[in-house]
Amino acid sequence: MRPKKTLSDRLTTRYQLVIRNEENLAEKTTVGFTYAKLLVVSVAIFVVLFGFSLFLSKTLLAKWFDPKHAQMEQDRKLFELALRVDSLAGEVQRKELYIRNVQRILSGDTSSQFQDPASVLVNDRGVRQIGSLKVGANDSLFRQEFERSGGAAMVNFTSGKFRELQEMVFFPPLVGLVSDKYDVKKGHYGVDIVAKTNEPVKSIADGTVIMASWTQDSGHVIAVQHRGNLISVYKHNAELLKKVGSFVNAGDILAIVGNSGEMTNGPHLHFELWYNGSSLNPEEFVTF
Which of 24, 75, 106, 268 is the most exposed place for a label (fewest CB within 10 A)? Predict the structure, then answer.
């Protein structure tokens, strides 16, 4: 009587698989194996297939097999959109405050103050807080500083800070005779250009209209924000042809020459340039 084989004997017993030709029974190949090797190979193949399937289910096939994948994608997109909305909201708020402050400065508003500590001006180097500014009874704080300095606050155009303006080419807003030049000592922060009646007033460069309104002193006023925090202002117009928020190209018609407002004695255009809160002499940049 043969002794009963143990599990170890069954796993280690060597077997041979012989492959023969069906017609002549000629031996083609043989494969030697044990149940232990067969079991190890089977487990290894199973682990590899299982790991590969798990990898696919979490990556390429996740949208079909993972029920949480769609929700995770939606959450990720919502988070990205929330970040963009927050960034845009902050930028819009800074722009609105900046435009509001510029409009008050240009209109000579004496009834309000810039008391919002979050008021900022956006320049080409980032965000600069302007704090609490008061508009004087006769003009803006910038103009008061120029009057007190006796013209010493005029811009140094040779410095690198303002060199980019000299490299820009400006379209003349109006072709005519300059009847009153820029003079900070006299409180005249622009040039007066006399031209024919109903002549069009044109934008000096590409930009966005940030002010288009009527003031008692300057009549119909329109202002355009250009790149580099440069603002051009056109006063005493007979009619305004653009609205706030309109994008304009260089040479686009903004208004019609007129004689509106109290501080005028005949049809002309009062033209001003402001750069980072400082007035510039327009004749330094524009040929009339």
Answer: 24
Instruction: Pick left, alpha or beta for residue 261 (phi over 0 → left; psi -120 to 50 → alpha; otherwise beta).
Output: left
CA distance 76 to 69: 11
What domains, with CATH codes, occur in the chain? Answer: 160-284 (2.70.70.10)
Q: Which residue, among 273, 239, 244, has the nearest Cα to 259 in the 3D structure? A: 239
Both tokens of 202, joined, read 């044109």
**CA–CA dist 258, 161 (Å, integer):** 35
**Measuring CA to CA, how many Å separate 116 from each of 99, 110, 131, 132?**
14, 16, 7, 7
Query: What tens digit of pLDDT does each residue of 186-236 get?
Result: 888 999 999 888 899 999 999 999 999 998 888 999 999 998 789 999 999
Decide: 204 and 174 in contact? Cβ < 8 Å: no
| Rounded Cα distance, 233 and 203, in Å | 9
Instruction: Give pTM, 2 decimals.
Output: 0.50
State whether the Cα torsion 175-180-185-189 is positive or negative. negative
